[in-house]
Design goal:
Order of helices and strands: EHEHEEEHHHHHEEHHEEHEH
Radius of gyration: 19 Å
Structural class: alpha/beta
Helix content: 40-55%
Organism: Lactobacillus crispatus
Keywords: Cytoplasm, Hydrolase, Manganese, Metal-binding
Cofactor: Mn(2+)
Subcellular location: Cytoplasm
Shape: globular
Number of strands: 10
InterPro entries: DDH_dom, DHH_sf, DHHA2, DHHA2_dom_sf, Mn-dep_inorganic_PyrPase, Oligoribo/pAp-PDE_c-di-AMP_PDE
CATH superfamily of the largest domain: inorganic pyrophosphatase (n-terminal core)
CATH class of the largest domain: Alpha Beta
Length: 311
């Protein structure tokens, strides 16, 4: 059987990398020949989880077609978030928990999408459905992914399925998920040694909203005021990135993981800034706005932006 790549989205987070590794293991147990790869280097949080459970980071690819004919996608489906030559390979499987947008295939495929907090929650359910035992280290990596995506089960995206998965996986992995989870999340909040250009690209996704190219980035911190001391530098980097990549609007969500509050920085035209204000029913002040309780790009940011841009 020819090899297939399994990978998550660009600028991968713990879900994108961790779930790709776990799903590749599952598919290999089911008779496929797969390799988990990544579309970028792991961030500090993901590196912490990989080291904790004894995994090496997947190799990074720029293109898939030179090596494989088929791929499996996890934690994304939108082409602009995928490998650069996604149009040159066949997608055979998708496991995701996001909206479905601009996704088309020539042939039938396995597609599983559920409105849960993390893709690893779905993969955990698939292990159970197929009756395949989850090794301790893979359980730890999947646990890490769910903790990351749900902010230790505090995100509004969290479901009862995520909670059950966390409890079950923590037991297999032999860790206290609250203690480990907080340590892992904190590992990803050190922004002092990174440039603004690096930070706005660490966890960023592009969305097509009614013909406009909107970039939404997010960074997690434990000291929001300290992060906002770099506001002008962030705005300058966001503006430069927008000009270089043709973004109509660039939003940076800075989230305090301890109190689940965020502040947003926004650059764009007067029109797109107005649409942002309409989406959140808030006024920007010097390109900045407080968004208390907003922590989820998937559930609390993209849907209102989509509604505003499509109105």
């Amino acid at each position: 059987m020819e090899k297939e790549f399994v990978f998550g989205h660009q600028n991968p987070d713990t879900d994108a990398i961790g779930t790709a590794i776990a799903f590749s293991y599952l598919q290999n147990k089911l008779g496929y020949n797969t390799e988990a790869v990544a579309l970028g280097e792991p961030n500090d949080e993901t590196a912490y989880a990989l080291k904790k459970f004894g995994f090496k980071a997947p190799r990074v690819i720029k293109e898939a077609a030179p090596e494989v004919k088929s791929v499996m996608l996890v934690d994304h489906n939108e082409p602009q978030q995928s490998v650069s030559d996604i149009d040159k390979v066949k997608v055979t499987h998708v496991v995701d928990h996001h909206r479905i947008m601009n996704f088309n295939t020539a042939d039938p495929l396995y597609y599983r999408a559920e409105p849960v907090g993390c893709t690893s929650t779905i993969v955990w359910r698939m292990f159970n459905e197929f009756g395949i035992e989850i090794p301790e280290n893979y359980a730890g990596l999947m646990l890490s992914a769910i903790i990351s995506d749900t902010l230790l089960l505090k995100s509004p995206t969290t479901t009862d399925k995520d909670k059950k998965a966390v409890e079950a996986l923590a037991k297999i992995a032999g860790v206290d998920y609250k203690e480990y989870g907080l340590a892992m999340l904190k590992a990803g909040t050190n922004i002092s040694d990174k440039s603004e250009e690096e930070l706005i690209d660490l966890d960023a996704k592009s969305f097509e909203l009614n013909g406009r190219n909107v970039r939404v980035a997010q960074i997690n911190v434990v000291d929001l005021p300290e992060a906002l001391e770099r506001k002008e530098a962030f705005l300058k980097a966001m503006d430069a990135s927008s000009k270089d990549n043709g973004y109509d609007m660039f939003m940076l969500l800075i989230t305090n993981i301890l109190d689940s509050d965020s502040e947003a920085l926004v650059v764009g035209s007067d029109e797109t800034k107005s649409l942002f204000e309409k989406a959140f029913n808030k006024q920007l002040s010097d390109s900045e706005v407080k968004l208390p309780g907003v922590v989820s790009r998937k559930k609390q940011v993209v849907p209102p932006l989509t509604d505003a841009f499509n109105a």
